Amino acid sequence: MVLRSINPATEEVIQEFEELSEQQIEQKLAAAQASFEKWREVSFEERAKLMRRAAEVLRAQKSELGKIITSEMGKTIGAAEAEIEKCAATCDYYADNAAKFLAPEKVETDGSASYARFDPIGVVLAVMPWNFPFWQVFRFAAPALMAGNVGVLKHASNVQLSGQAIEKVFTEAGFPAGAFANLEIGSAKVDAIIRDPRIKAVTLTGSEYAGSQVAKTAGEVIKKTVLELGGSDPFIVLAGADIDAAAKTAVATRLQFNAGQSCISAKRFIVEAPVAKEFAKKLVSNVKGLKIGDPTKSDTDVGPLVNEQGLNDIDKQVKDSVAQGAKLLCGGERLPGKGFFYSTAVLADIKKSMPVFAEEVFGPVLPIIVAKDADQAIRMANDSPYGLASTIFTADTAAAQKLAAKIDSGAVFINGQVKSDPRLPFGGIKQSGYGRELSHYGIKEFVNIKTVWVK
After folding, report:
1. CB 3.0 to 4.6 Å from 282: which of 15, 247, 277, 420, for a disulfide?
2. In contact, 206 and 229? CB cutoff 8 Å
């Protein structure tokens, strides 16, 4: 099998990669296991030195690494470089905090001493997507390595340059051979790797289907999984909210990263009736002011979709929704010329049965749903198989915090843009997955929480 990296802005093939042979996979897994036996004995202080060095390498190579991201999946160059900076900050965060997060916790019992300790479990397989080709990997790798584990990466087939570059970052930082390895393989080989006894756990960010397949295999061999899957995040705007700020944030959260190709970007804009027309007007105005085009140029706001399939999927969801009665306020068509560019669509008169409400829309589409009041807005927000994140814009933050308790999602942001932050736990519920990444919760997902009792 050949893995192919294609520039979505030009449709040109950047590079092709031969899939690893069974022998090459065996060599990498053997190296990872051998590395773990030594790495688990390395002190937090020594691990932190190397992790801080990884942050330094990332920052020193930010421009070069950002260009790899932009060329492989179309993220604008400014957002690509910001992604590298975020990875570096996360490396520093876990270098600074891992020892504290994983310090033994004393518990008073009938023993003369008793405590919980947090030991590494071994080789962890990461199955990662293309849309944040560095960040998705580092938010797993930084805590996992600092906990004393080692990692092997099965990256998306279209971002193998990113996978190789990440492995190189850890090598240049001084991590031992085998501590982190990129596996140039397609999805068909994942099942056998999960079943390999050296793999102790799996983390996946991706589609529901991919997550269910990984969870099925891991379940058969009783291995821990963390899944971060799709999302159809509600963005609730209540009467009395700052509509200018809400509309500006709505455009940013939907389009700032990857032309809307983000799990945690808002995808359903649920607006209380008294402010619905004003919000829609400002949303259209803000969208029309965006520049769509070459993602390598610093003044570009929105780049291409990752491939033609992604573009066709979005176009069909919009057209099918319009056929069912949705009103297209602007955009909603493929742009002429090379590249997978799509004009941002804003739609009104949305009903539950329409694809732009019922399905995850992975692209530059903003459907507006009108709610009669806050209670109905919450019911609409929860009327989804997904539960990753959500947003509330309101003048009454105290009331919003009470509403937040009623929303079925892993995160609620009030009067601000949803984002992942290494200081806060990140993950979803329902079909958006399970488990948590980041913060002290994330680093404990892949450790043996071990009871020690002494008399």
Report:
1. 247
2. yes
d(C-alpha 5, C-alpha 13), whole Å: 6
Task: Specify whether 295 is located in the same domain as 224.
Answer: no
Q: What total of structural domains would you count in the chain?
A: 2
Listing DSSP states for 204-250 in one string gives EES-HHHHHHHHHHHHHTT-EEEEE----EEEEE-TTS-HHHHHHHH
Shared domain for 215 and 239, answered yes or no, is no
Query: Distances from the Cα of 262 to the Cαs of 29, 58, 415, in angstroms?
Result: 31, 22, 20
Is 46 an active-site residue?
Answer: no
User: Is the overall model pTM greater than 0.85, yes or no?
Assistant: yes
Give the span between the Cα atoms of 187 and 169, in whole angstroms.
24
Catalytic residue among 83, 184, 263, 360: 263
**Where does the pLDDT of residue 68 fall: very low under 50, low under 70, confident under 90, or very high at 90 and above?**
very high
State whether 450 and 351 are in the same domain. no
Residue spans of beta strands (DSSP E) within 331-401: 345-348, 365-371, 386-387, 390-393
Residues with Cβ < 8 Å from 439, sequence gap 6 or more? 422, 423, 424, 425, 426
pLDDT-derived band at 257, boundaries 50, 70, 90: confident
Residues in a beta bridge with 205 = 228
228 is catalytic: yes
- The answer to whether residues 441 and 144 touch, using CB atoms and an 8 Å cutoff, is no
Ordered DSSP codes for 219-231: HHTT-EEEEE---
**Alpha carbons 241 and 454: distance in angstroms, whole number:** 57
Q: What is the DSSP letter of 187?
A: G
Average pLDDT over residues 426-431: 98
For residue range 394-412, what is the model confidence (pLDDT) as tens digits? 999 999 999 999 999 999 9
Q: Which position among 228, 272, 359, 445 bears the catalytic label?
A: 228
Q: How confident is the model at residue 84 (pLDDT cuts 50, 70, 90)?
A: very high
Range of the domain at 374: 233-421
Rounded CA separation 97/336 (Å) = 50
Q: Which residues of 168-183 are buried (b: 16+ CB within 10 A; e: fewer)?
A: ebbbebebbebbbbbb
Which tens digits make up the pLDDT trace of 233-249? 999 999 999 999 999 99
